[in-house]
Amino acid sequence: MARKRPMTTEGLFDTICKILKEKGKLPDILDYGLATHSPVSITNYEYGLKNKLDYGGNEGIYLDLWIEYTAEGKKCANGLGTFKTLRTDDEAMHIMAALLADFIIEEYAYVNANLDDFTWEGVDVHVIEGSGEKSKWGYSCGTMEAALKRKDELLMKYNKVIVRDNETREEKIYENGG
After folding, report:
1. Cβ atoms 28, 87 nearer than 8 A
2. pTM for the whole thing?
Protein backbone atom coordinates (compact mmCIF):
# COMPACT_ATOMS: atom_id res chain seq x y z
CA MET A 1 0.00 0.00 0.00
CA ALA A 2 1.37 3.41 -0.93
CA ARG A 3 2.24 5.87 1.79
CA LYS A 4 -0.02 8.88 2.39
CA ARG A 5 2.95 11.09 3.28
CA PRO A 6 6.73 10.91 2.94
CA MET A 7 8.81 8.68 5.16
CA THR A 8 11.00 10.53 7.64
CA THR A 9 14.70 10.06 8.33
CA GLU A 10 13.73 8.53 11.68
CA GLY A 11 11.29 6.17 9.98
CA LEU A 12 13.89 5.05 7.45
CA PHE A 13 16.46 4.33 10.18
CA ASP A 14 13.91 2.37 12.23
CA THR A 15 12.72 0.44 9.15
CA ILE A 16 16.24 -0.61 8.18
CA CYS A 17 17.02 -1.55 11.79
CA LYS A 18 13.91 -3.76 11.83
CA ILE A 19 15.01 -5.46 8.59
CA LEU A 20 18.53 -5.99 10.01
CA LYS A 21 17.08 -7.43 13.21
CA GLU A 22 14.76 -9.79 11.29
CA LYS A 23 17.75 -11.02 9.25
CA GLY A 24 19.93 -11.46 12.33
CA LYS A 25 22.34 -8.75 11.18
CA LEU A 26 22.25 -6.46 14.25
CA PRO A 27 25.37 -7.35 16.23
CA ASP A 28 25.00 -8.21 19.90
CA ILE A 29 27.89 -5.91 20.84
CA LEU A 30 25.68 -2.83 20.34
CA ASP A 31 25.10 -0.60 23.34
CA TYR A 32 22.33 1.08 21.32
CA GLY A 33 20.97 2.05 17.93
CA LEU A 34 19.04 5.32 18.03
CA ALA A 35 17.20 7.15 15.29
CA THR A 36 17.63 10.90 14.95
CA HIS A 37 15.74 13.12 17.36
CA SER A 38 15.17 15.69 14.59
CA PRO A 39 13.44 13.78 11.78
CA VAL A 40 12.70 15.36 8.41
CA SER A 41 10.60 14.07 5.52
CA ILE A 42 12.40 12.34 2.66
CA THR A 43 10.69 13.66 -0.46
CA ASN A 44 13.12 12.40 -3.10
CA TYR A 45 15.04 9.14 -3.45
CA GLU A 46 17.96 11.01 -5.02
CA TYR A 47 19.99 11.46 -1.86
CA GLY A 48 23.35 10.17 -0.73
CA LEU A 49 23.60 7.90 2.30
CA LYS A 50 26.64 9.09 4.26
CA ASN A 51 28.37 7.73 7.33
CA LYS A 52 31.13 8.12 9.85
CA LEU A 53 32.56 5.09 11.63
CA ASP A 54 35.05 6.12 14.30
CA TYR A 55 36.17 5.79 17.88
CA GLY A 56 34.22 7.92 20.33
CA GLY A 57 35.79 10.85 22.15
CA ASN A 58 35.87 9.04 25.47
CA GLU A 59 34.50 5.53 24.91
CA GLY A 60 33.41 3.00 22.37
CA ILE A 61 32.92 3.03 18.62
CA TYR A 62 30.21 5.07 16.91
CA LEU A 63 28.56 4.63 13.52
CA ASP A 64 26.70 7.78 12.50
CA LEU A 65 24.43 7.75 9.44
CA TRP A 66 22.86 10.68 7.56
CA ILE A 67 21.57 11.67 4.15
CA GLU A 68 22.81 14.48 1.92
CA TYR A 69 20.66 15.99 -0.81
CA THR A 70 19.93 19.22 -2.67
CA ALA A 71 16.80 21.23 -1.86
CA GLU A 72 15.99 24.54 -3.51
CA GLY A 73 19.54 24.75 -4.85
CA LYS A 74 21.17 24.24 -1.43
CA LYS A 75 23.10 21.27 -0.12
CA CYS A 76 21.37 19.78 2.93
CA ALA A 77 22.20 17.03 5.41
CA ASN A 78 19.92 15.33 7.91
CA GLY A 79 20.71 12.62 10.40
CA LEU A 80 19.24 9.13 10.26
CA GLY A 81 20.66 7.66 13.44
CA THR A 82 23.61 6.31 15.40
CA PHE A 83 24.84 2.90 16.48
CA LYS A 84 27.26 2.60 19.40
CA THR A 85 29.24 -0.13 21.08
CA LEU A 86 31.24 0.29 24.28
CA ARG A 87 33.95 -1.96 22.90
CA THR A 88 37.07 -0.45 21.28
CA ASP A 89 39.02 -3.54 20.17
CA ASP A 90 39.90 -4.35 16.56
CA GLU A 91 37.25 -7.09 16.32
CA ALA A 92 34.57 -4.59 17.41
CA MET A 93 35.65 -2.17 14.67
CA HIS A 94 35.30 -4.96 12.09
CA ILE A 95 31.86 -5.87 13.44
CA MET A 96 30.75 -2.23 13.24
CA ALA A 97 32.12 -2.00 9.68
CA ALA A 98 30.08 -5.08 8.76
CA LEU A 99 27.00 -3.41 10.30
CA LEU A 100 27.67 -0.36 8.12
CA ALA A 101 27.88 -2.55 5.00
CA ASP A 102 24.68 -4.38 5.94
CA PHE A 103 22.85 -1.10 6.60
CA ILE A 104 23.91 0.28 3.20
CA ILE A 105 22.85 -2.93 1.42
CA GLU A 106 19.45 -3.09 3.12
CA GLU A 107 18.73 0.64 2.72
CA TYR A 108 19.55 0.47 -0.99
CA ALA A 109 17.32 -2.57 -1.51
CA TYR A 110 14.46 -1.10 0.52
CA VAL A 111 14.43 2.29 -1.22
CA ASN A 112 14.68 0.72 -4.68
CA ALA A 113 11.83 -1.68 -3.89
CA ASN A 114 9.70 1.25 -2.65
CA LEU A 115 10.67 4.14 -4.97
CA ASP A 116 7.16 5.56 -5.03
CA ASP A 117 7.30 6.02 -1.24
CA PHE A 118 10.32 8.26 -1.80
CA THR A 119 8.93 10.25 -4.75
CA TRP A 120 7.10 13.35 -3.50
CA GLU A 121 8.55 16.07 -5.74
CA GLY A 122 7.91 17.10 -9.31
CA VAL A 123 5.59 15.61 -11.90
CA ASP A 124 5.98 12.26 -13.67
CA VAL A 125 4.85 11.57 -17.23
CA HIS A 126 4.39 8.03 -18.59
CA VAL A 127 2.93 6.48 -21.72
CA ILE A 128 -0.01 4.11 -21.26
CA GLU A 129 0.87 0.92 -23.18
CA GLY A 130 -1.61 -0.83 -25.50
CA SER A 131 -2.22 -3.30 -22.64
CA GLY A 132 -3.47 -0.42 -20.48
CA GLU A 133 -0.41 -0.61 -18.21
CA LYS A 134 1.73 2.41 -17.38
CA SER A 135 5.11 2.15 -19.11
CA LYS A 136 8.14 1.44 -16.94
CA TRP A 137 9.99 4.30 -18.59
CA GLY A 138 8.92 7.88 -18.24
CA TYR A 139 9.96 11.42 -17.51
CA SER A 140 10.30 13.31 -14.24
CA CYS A 141 9.68 17.02 -14.62
CA GLY A 142 10.27 19.80 -12.13
CA THR A 143 7.02 21.62 -12.85
CA MET A 144 3.53 20.86 -14.10
CA GLU A 145 4.16 23.21 -17.02
CA ALA A 146 7.16 21.14 -18.15
CA ALA A 147 5.20 17.90 -17.64
CA LEU A 148 2.28 19.10 -19.76
CA LYS A 149 4.68 20.10 -22.53
CA ARG A 150 6.29 16.63 -22.39
CA LYS A 151 2.78 15.08 -22.43
CA ASP A 152 1.94 17.00 -25.64
CA GLU A 153 5.15 15.72 -27.26
CA LEU A 154 4.37 12.12 -26.27
CA LEU A 155 0.79 12.34 -27.54
CA MET A 156 2.22 12.97 -31.03
CA LYS A 157 3.54 9.37 -30.94
CA TYR A 158 1.34 7.55 -28.43
CA ASN A 159 -2.41 7.24 -27.82
CA LYS A 160 -2.49 7.74 -24.05
CA VAL A 161 -0.27 9.48 -21.52
CA ILE A 162 -0.59 9.73 -17.75
CA VAL A 163 0.60 12.78 -15.79
CA ARG A 164 1.11 12.44 -12.03
CA ASP A 165 1.67 15.21 -9.49
CA ASN A 166 3.97 13.46 -7.01
CA GLU A 167 3.10 15.73 -4.10
CA THR A 168 -0.67 15.34 -4.29
CA ARG A 169 -0.56 11.85 -5.89
CA GLU A 170 -3.19 13.04 -8.40
CA GLU A 171 -3.07 11.44 -11.83
CA LYS A 172 -4.72 12.42 -15.07
CA ILE A 173 -4.85 10.43 -18.27
CA TYR A 174 -4.69 12.30 -21.58
CA GLU A 175 -5.67 10.76 -24.89
CA ASN A 176 -4.42 11.55 -28.37
CA GLY A 177 -6.77 14.15 -29.82
CA GLY A 178 -8.49 14.67 -26.48
Report:
1. no
2. 0.84
Distance between CA atoms of residues 44 and 51, nearest Å: 19
52-99 pLDDT per residue, tens: 999 998 899 999 999 999 888 899 999 999 999 999 999 999 999 999
In b/e form, how buried is each residue of 86-110, taking b as 16+ CB within 10 angstroms? ebeeeebbebbeebbebbeebbeeb
* Residue 1 binned pLDDT confidence (cut-offs 50, 70, 90): low
The whole-number average pLDDT for the span 123-141 is 90
Cα separations in angstroms, 47 against 95, 107, 140, 160 = 26, 12, 16, 32
CB 99 within 8 A of CB 83: yes
Whether the Cβ atoms of residue 82 and residue 62 lie closer than 8 Å to each other: yes
